[in-house]
Amino acid sequence: MAFDLVIRGGSVIDGTGGPARTADVAISGGTVAEVGKVSGTGKREIDAGGAVVTPGFVDIHTHYDGQATWDSRLNPSSDHGVTTVVMGNCGVGFAPVRPPDHGKLIELMEGVEDLPGAVLSEGLSWDWESIPEYLDALERRPHDLDFAAQVCHGPIRLFVMGERGADREPATAEEIAEMGRLAAEGIRAGALGFTTSRTLNHRTASGAPAPTVRAERAELVGIAEAVGATGIGVLQVVSDFEDVADEIATLLAMMRTSGRPLSVSLLQGRSGTGYRKILDTLSRANAEGLEMRAQVAARMVGILVGLEGTVNPLRGSATYRSLEGLDLAKRAVRLGEPDIRTRVLEELRARDGGIGLPLERVFELGDPPDYEPGPEASLAARAAALGVEPDALLYDMLRGDGGRALLLMPFLNYFDGNLDAAGDMLAHPHTVPGLGDGGAHVGTICDASFTTTLLTHWARDRRQGTRFDLPFLIRRQCRGTAETVGLLDRGLLAPGYKADVNVIDFDGLRLHPPAMAHDLPAGGKRLLQTASGYLHTIVSGTEVYAGGEPTGELPGRLVRGARPDPATA
User: Fold this and answer.
1) Alpha carbon of residue 374 to chain centroid
2) Nearest-5° angle of CA 261, CA 265, CA 271?
3) Burial, 549: exposed, middle or buried (Cβ in 10 Å; 0-12, 13-18, 19+)?
4) CA 240 and chain centroid, separation
5) Confidence at residue 553, expressed as pLDDT on a 0 to 100 scale
6) What's the pLDDT score for residue 417?
7) Nearest partner of 306 among 314, 316, 298, judged by Cα
8) Which candidate, 182, 435, 487, 149, places its Cα nearest to that of 294?
9) What's the pLDDT band for 184 if we cut at 50, 70, 90?
10) What is the extent of the structural domain holding 381?
11) From its phi and psi, is residue 17 left (phi > 0), alpha (psi between -120 and 50) or beta?
């Protein structure tokens, strides 16, 4: 038998959690045909000897809602073995919408997800109003990866309630019913589920809390009930959990009323083990028969500090601001002049709050990036060891690499100076990796590389504490994530399943530092991060990346709705 593609002799980790085994993978018609000793030939064959062969990664927490309308490449996620992304998380998106409200949705996305308003204003075509029309617009453009959308609470609240919705006023019973109808309409048209935000960290560009943050339980349960009536769809919530008992009661009510699975974003928000209360809730909910998972991060979440980024502490100096018209390389040279250095530091020291950063919690990112540095690596500790002022050391580091150097300031998952809390969350039976936010936070965070960190740090490189077997991590990142959003046709290397595959040089897998690219609409910039070691990334049997470089093939499509498991269909 001739197959479209045969991947020969790799160490196959099939996504079930079972051990690696040397095997061939044969692909025909976009699906896996055989796994084992394949006697037939392929129209094309890949020698995977010495490499690891895995299912493609499923990233269920991204924000490509705008980028997917103007860009066929969904990077940076596509640079890290991802073959399916799910967008529309955190209750922010671009449909449904009336033309007068375009600016409001841009302001919401700009504030919550750090996507510049000018980029969105130029990039979005707005050739839709309803959620079904938005899905149709997405479907018209081919992409490198498969992608799926979700119904976002913020837009439907604004669409139904107008300014009252934006102002976070309570919804009436009639308005709740209409929001539920719109959510169900979107899910029937192919959206995977419904998402909402209940965290004060999510604010519009003007600083106002997100429209959904104080939505009452009746509103959330009413929408969830309408979703449940479709018999399909999942629920996703991000919350501050300020009143843990009340918030958990709301989440449980949404699941019990709808009968639908729910996932919640989970991070260590402050020092200690408060996150374990949510892990315990997951265990109790699943014991009750409720399908509740948490999306957790593979490392700290940290702000990237640099001369090109959103967070640049030197902007507090008038002397520095006078140089911002220079290109980056010339600016870095001028900053090296002794008189400029003295004036900038004096001006910063004269400000209330000085440099404005806690330098005992700021680290050099390095190459390769170090996402679990010890306290001795902080700028404050290094400055003390060198006998220099910490802010002077910060200044000099920011000039590094021609002004492209980046520093890392952790603010979640690192309150104890290590990633032990992240390890606790990754190990729990009802969590899946997520929260990489690909397509968002373009000037402050670059976490779409979480998938690579999951493999390199937790299965190979971690110096202390918990480590995990690679098959366990592949099971979570491939099949576990797919199950969480109902895409049961992928995440496994077995006959009948979708032929999304990675061939990885695991020993050579390595993250490169993030770098600023100027490739968004309106001349906008964004942080991108690449990796070495992804030898072949295949979507629906077609190679889309070879050695980390795009092949030009665009087999990715909008995934409309849940997908049945080929083993039981």
Assistant:
1) 25
2) 140
3) exposed
4) 18
5) 98
6) 94
7) 314
8) 435
9) very high
10) 313-412
11) left
pLDDT in tens, 401-436: 999 999 999 999 999 999 999 999 999 999 999 999
Q: What is the pLDDT of residues 99-110, one digit of tens each?
A: 999 999 999 999
Bridge-based pairing state of the strands 363-364 and 407-412: antiparallel
User: Do the Cβ atoms of 425 and 300 come closer than 8 Å?
Assistant: no
What radius of gyration do the chain's Cα atoms show? Answer: 24
Alpha helices in 268-389 (DSSP H): 275-288, 318-321, 328-335, 338-350, 379-386
The reported pLDDT for the residue numbered 114 is 87
Domain boundary among 362, 378, 412: 412
SS3 398: helix
Cis peptide bond upstream of 96, omega within 30: yes
Distance CA 400, CA 458 (A): 29
Q: Are 511 and 368 in contact (CB under 8 A)?
A: yes
Residue 560 lies in a domain: no
Arithmetic mean of pLDDT, 129-154:
98
pLDDT tens column, 148-182? 999 999 999 999 999 999 999 999 999 999 999 99
Q: Contact at 8 Å (CB) between 449 and 62?
A: no
Name the DSSP class of 58. E
Q: How far is CA 417 from CA 49, 366, 371, 446, in A?
A: 39, 17, 11, 20
Sign of CA dihedral 549, 555, 560, 561: negative
Whether 50 and 108 share a structural domain: no
Same domain flag for 361 and 444 = no
The CATH number for 287's domain is 3.20.20.140
Q: E strands, 365-497, where?
A: 407-412, 431-433
Is the Cβ–Cβ distance between 523 and 119 less than 8 Å?
A: no
| CB-based contacts of 25, cutoff 8 Å, min separation 6 | 6, 7, 10, 12, 32, 34, 35, 38, 53, 493, 501
- Residue 275, both tokens: 């996150």
3-state secondary structure of 378: strand
Tens of pLDDT along 56-111?
999 999 999 999 999 999 999 999 999 999 999 999 999 999 999 999 999 999 99
- Indicate the pLDDT class of residue 295, thresholds 50, 70 and 90: very high
Total residue length of the chain: 569
